[in-house]
Design goal:
homodimer; 324 residues; 2 domains; 6-stranded mixed sheet; 40% helix; globular
């Protein structure tokens, strides 16, 4: 990994754009802001840019008011965080014209090493964890940086519940609490702000639960109608898939969300032995071993049929492999 | 605190009963088993006894098969864990006749120091954390002990989401992961085993949501009928109160559960400024600042009226105090 090269780039350049993928989450926003605040702290010009709406629940993060939506000027270097490829940034046109340095920092196994330098560690819980290690001993991690890094790690590990939770990530969280971060405060912001509409949505979605494959495959639907009737926001759908995944005996959970009438966003989760990234890749999606996603250009019922059949085939195959 | 006295008692005695409160939870069961396994490891006779059913989700804990329900013999000493008073053990009669040593290890502020020696640390996240510190450097913490202690800490902190999550508790969790504990495995056992009946129950309970006091007080009901119709178990009601607590703007959540037609178990949670222990104490209950409970001998509607009025009065008072 190009860690020395990274420090050299920071030292020898002045202005940085820090960016991450569209549909931003706690790790992408938290790590963009931690990197921004750290660069500002050592006297650099740092501009966080994310080409999408920042969900309300992340607006408590220090520096979030600085995030711009569009690329507005020239930079010496662009630091891309938490993005397996450069298309996910939503800036394809602008980046085609860009000739400066690109730094790629990520923890996705599927990362295509698109940067001039690439720091990709798929063993890290989150990009926040990688940034903590890059900053450690180089920049004083103040409360603002700590709060962003804590949020990165805690959201990408599902509050220490996912398999990417390591002793190393727990130790970093402890260090960040020592800097003043209050775990219950962060948790209330990012996990525990339920709107009444989100509860109404939850009830409707739970009514669509279907369980097949001998109880091992559970699926849920979120239709455009449900979103309209309840007044729920996009971010209110986060985490609903876990209600399916957590049912006793279930190995794979799939959620189908109507973006438009013929465009379905599909989310996959698994518990112990199914590699859902492989399933998502069949449909040109991607992600991690236990959490992945893709888009399908079909109406809901057709999308369900195709995807669930593929999941079942894939499960049968993995099951055979495991037992041979 | 009588820590040296504790080591002396362990050294100078041979047989120990290790016990905790009825309606056992992750911290009581995990800490009873960690202490049991540690005593066995140094060659003592150790007998875990809990006078209640052990919820299914905790039966993965090493040693859980050793737990007896009744006191069956004489012991040199009884080690009581996670219990504010001795009545909560459910052994009043037997303990009246007992003349041996009582060791009291707890983290409840309300603990009445009923032991011959008392190790009470209300700053500890959990009794599991206290036991980790007592064992550290004295007994090798093997995988079995580590798994019990990890479960204690992670359940009592709500997977690192509650205000008792400290840097110290995170560091201990990291040490326990280094001993081989898999955070996602524990999480699946204790937080993520949903039965289909528990999902059906959840939908019915969410239908009873009531919000008052300018959106600051949310309440839910669980009736005996709901339990029967859905076939849900007692343990399926764990955590439902958080759906009320997590609603944006809510400070206090109350859940009313019919034990019998005229016996209501009431649970309280708060987010930031209301001390719910004080409210529970009005009805002879107890607990912590942000989580408490009591029993009310009234039918559901009457119990709701009395309790919710008391909560409102109490909130108004605390609010006045905060703003003066």
């Amino acid at each position: 990994m190009d860690i020395t090269a990274f420090y050299d780039i920071v030292e020898n350049n002045d202005s940085f754009m820090i960016t991450s993928h569209i549909a931003p989450d706690g790790d992408s926003i938290g790590s963009v802001l931690a990197m921004t605040l750290a660069l500002l702290k050592i006297g650099k010009k740092a501009f966080p840019v994310i080409n999408d709406v920042i969900p309300k629940k992340y607006r408590f993060l220090p520096g979030s008011n600085l995030i711009a939506k569009e690329i507005a000027r020239k930079y010496d270097a662009i630091i891309v965080l938490d993005s397996g490829d450069i298309e996910r940034l939503g800036f394809s046109k602008e980046l085609n014209e860009y000739s400066g340095l690109i730094v790629n920092i990520d923890h996705h196994k599927s990362n295509v090493s698109f940067g001039d330098i690439n720091i990709v560690d798929s063993g890290a819980s989150s990009v926040g964890e990688i940034i903590y290690r890059l900053l450690e001993g180089k920049v004083e991690i103040d409360y603002g940086i700590a709060l962003n890094l804590y949020t990165s790690i805690v959201t990408d590990t599902g509050s220490m519940k996912y398999s990417n939770t390591t002793a190393k990530s727990l130790k970093i969280l402890a260090e960040l609490v020592d800097k003043g971060v209050k775990p219950d405060y962060v948790s209330r912001q990012v996990f525990e702000k339920r709107s009444l509409s989100s509860l109404s949505l939850l009830k409707l979605v739970l009514d669509t639960l279907e369980i097949t494959a001998d109880g091992k495959l559970a699926s849920l639907n979120i239709t455009k109608d449900m979103m309209e009737v309840t007044g729920a926001m996009d971010e209110d759908t986060d985490g609903i898939i876990n209600y399916a995944r957590e049912i006793d005996g279930v190995e794979v959970a799939v959620i189908f969300k109507e973006s438009e009438k013929s465009l379905i966003k599909v989310g996959f989760r698994s518990n112990e032995w199914v590699d859902v990234r492989k399933i998502a890749e069949v449909f040109n999606g991607g992600g991690h071993l236990r959490a992945a996603g893709c888009n399908i250009k079909y109406p809901l019922e057709k999308a369900r049929e195709i995807v669930l059949n593929t999941v079942k085939m894939h499960m049968a195959e993995e099951y055979r492999e495991r037992c041979n």
